[in-house]
Amino acid sequence: MTDTHPVTRVEALRKTYDHGRVTAVDDVSFEVPVGGSLGIVGESGSGKTTTARMIVGLEEPDAGRILFDGREIGTGGSRRLRRERARTVQLVFQDPYQSLDPRQSAGDAIDEILRLHSGLETSAFDKRRAELLGQVGLGTREAAALPRELSGGQRQRVAIARALAADPRLLVLDEAVAALDVSIQAQILNLLSEIRRDTGVALIFVSHDLEVVRWVADDVVVMFRGAVVERGPTADVLSRPEHPYTRLLLSSVPRLGWDPAQVSQARRDFLATP
Q1: Residue of 165, 164, 170 lying closest to 8 (CA atoms)
Q2: Most-buried pick from 149, 216, 250, 258 (CB within 10 A)?
Q3: Cα torsion through 199, 190, 40, 83, rounded to 10
Q4: Where are the domains of the chain?
Q5: Can you tell me the distance from the alpha carbon of 192 to that of 175, in angstroms, rounded to the nearest whole number?
Q6: What is the pTM of this model?
Q7: Running along the chain, 274 residues long, what does each successive block of 10 average in pLDDT?
Q8: Nearest by Cα to 16 from 64, 72, 68
Q9: Measured on CA atoms in the order 69, 206, 43, 214, is the torsion positive or negative?
Q10: Tell me: domain 8-99+169-239, CATH 3.40.50.300, correct?
């Protein structure tokens, strides 16, 4: 591990389905510096989630490379490779029910990952669990609760704590606040910023919501039909977009004087352009 390399570099990723007839991701490249934060934005079907799934090893690319700290980690089924990747990158889903066992308390969910990856003795183990719960703003009451006994925001905090228990270099968050109320979204986004500041973990934040990405990401890539159409510092891309698709995404955000009919027509015109 060395900070002379980005924490992850994605090189010319390609992914197809249906025996190559459907291209989900096509020649996608980007990198995330150590402790950095990258937003991947686009509408449903843009390829952003498939890209995220390849980074964490849930999908195998047809072509291209994914490097962590300058080297590849295989996607084979061996326990050693799975643990090595898990200690490097962790995924936080949109719906915590995808990753939390409904029969397992929040504290037990965190303990499971600590047992797999930490090697800590009992006293240090208990201290680390308490640190993780405190890091995401949860206490002993929430630790004893089952997922169904927690609010949506609390469940997402548990999912984040569980991911951090592996002490990863990178967190990939796939629409991680999309299912939450706006006020809870803000709490989770602030929490992620604090965790990044305090731990140095890098973030890849996958979202269709440009305002969320503006809040949390230093840099952004915009995806359309599987390809990256624009990239750069988030403030620059979202304030001075160059690609017509980025401008279309920005025009779709409701605001004072917003005309949905005009936006719909602009979308039809854009999609009709060869």
Answers
A1: 170
A2: 216
A3: 40
A4: 8-99+169-239, 243-274
A5: 13
A6: 0.90
A7: 79 95 96 96 94 93 93 71 82 84 94 86 86 93 95 93 93 90 90 93 94 93 96 96 93 81 84 76
A8: 64
A9: negative
A10: yes
